[in-house]
Specification:
The structure is a single chain. It is built from five helices and five strands; from the N terminus they run ββαβββαααα. By secondary structure, it is α+β, with helices and mostly antiparallel strands. The protein folds into two domains: 161 residues, Longin domain (Beta-Lactamase, 2-Layer Sandwich), CATH 3.30.450.50; 60 residues. Strands 2-1-5-4-3 form a five-stranded antiparallel β-sheet. Helix 2 packs antiparallel against helix 4.
């Protein structure tokens, strides 16, 4: 049998819309339902995801509203709030896992006690031993730090991959542009070569024509074209 430290006394789950206490677990104490009902009558509307805490005599009441449910944890008034907040998160996680939404949205007061009794008792036993849960809290903190570091490293690696992909895409684009430029350059060279060839042929033709004309004129002047008078 697990040792009892009387640190955690009560865990309850209340539906937000009508404040019905659909399940509860009293851990080696007798809290009852009436104080919970009275507390909800006096409380104003709660913000989803926000932690609330207040003292009642020698106990501390910790509450958190999440996804249509309000989780209630009653502990000794010296219980660390950070661990209480962690406990409420654990209650939320395990409650959602073992109770389908369809059941808790229509459940009556106390209707889910038998379904959640073992789960809530285990959570109470775990978080009742502060020395163990503090160690677990530290380990989980280190795990979270490592997780964030790994996520950061993965994000950086993905960024590097994206950068490499961008470089590769840019390189491929430059290669394609180089091919297009080379093709256009070769085409332009051919056009210029043909143009130069035409110019050379034209100049050569003009030169030949001029030489021919000059030759004819010279020959005419020297009488090369005169007939034989004899």
């Amino acid at each position: 049998m697990a040792e009892h430290f009387n640190q955690v006394q009560f865990i309850g789950v209340t539906r937000s819309r009508d404040k019905v206490l659909i399940t509860k677990h009293e851990h080696h104490c007798n809290v009852g339902v009436d104080p919970i009902k009275k507390m909800f009558k006096e409380m104003t509307e709660m913000n989803d995801g926000q932690n609330y805490a207040f003292q009642v005599k020698d106990t501390a009441w910790h509450l958190k509203s999440m996804n249509g449910l309000i989780y209630v944890l009653i502990t000794k008034n010296t219980y660390p709030q950070s661990i209480a907040a962690q406990c409420l998160e654990e209650v939320n996680r395990q409650f959602i896992e073992c109770v389908p939404e369809k059941r808790w949205t229509s459940a009556k007061e106390g209707q889910l006690d038998s379904t959640t009794s073992a789960v809530l008792d285990k959570i109470c036993t775990t978080y009742d031993n502060l020395s163990e849960v503090s160690t677990m809290h530290k380990v989980m903190g280190k795990v979270e730090v490592l997780k964030y570091q790994m996520q950061d490293n993965i994000a950086k690696a993905l960024d590097n991959c994206v950068a490499l992909e961008n470089i590769e895409e840019t390189s491929m684009a430059l290669k394609e542009q180089a091919k297009v430029f080379e093709t256009q350059s070769n085409t332009l060279k051919k056009k210029l070569w043909l143009k130069n060839l035409k110019m050379k042929l034209i100049i050569a033709g003009i030169a030949i024509a001029i030489i021919t004309v000059i030759t004819v004129i010279v020959c005419a002047q020297v009488g090369a074209f005169d007939g034989d008078d004899k």
